[in-house]
């Protein structure tokens, strides 16, 4: 399967890179979602039923008028909050 050391090295770098991207995407979503609290005004974010895309991504918005903070979540970081609704 592996022809040479350079192919193994390439594969390892590739897998690490993808893993890093996933980790970073999850981390930035987690930061944006902020445990379901709007970082701008402190209100509890609301999950809008119509803001669920075909990929399963969920749009959480701030209910306070004038504050249109929105956090898109596609990883399972909001599982507890979704079940609580
Ligand atoms: Zn807000």
Structure description:
41% of the residues lie in helices and 18% in strands. It has one domain (5-84). It contains 2 helices and 3 strands, in the order H-E-E-E-H. The model has no long low-confidence stretch (mean pLDDT 90). It is elongated and about 60 Å long. It has 85 residues and is an alpha+beta fold. The longest helix is centred in the first third of the chain and has 29 residues, at 5-33. Bound molecules: zinc ion. The site of zinc ion has 8 residues, from loops. Residues 38, 40-41, 43, 62, 64, 67, 69 line the site of zinc ion.
Topology:
Layout: H1 5-33, E1 46-52, E2 58-61, E3 70-73, H2 79-84
Antiparallel strand pairs: 1-2, 2-3
Keywords for this entry:
85 residues; 18% strand; alpha+beta; 2 helices; binds zinc ion
Q: Total strand count, please? A: 3
Order of helices and strands: HEEEH
- Shape, please? elongated
The assigned structural class equals alpha+beta
Mind summarizing the main beta sheet?
A: 3 strands, antiparallel
Spell out which ligands are present.
zinc ion
Radius of gyration: 18 Å
- Provide the spatial order of strands within the biggest beta sheet: 1-2-3
Q: In what range is the share of β-strand residues? A: 15-25%
Please work out how many helical segments DSSP would assign: 2
Intertermini distance: 49 Å
Low-confidence region ranges = none
- What percent of the residues sit in helical stretches (DSSP H or I)? 40-55%
Mean pLDDT: 90
**In the residues, how many domains can be counted?**
1
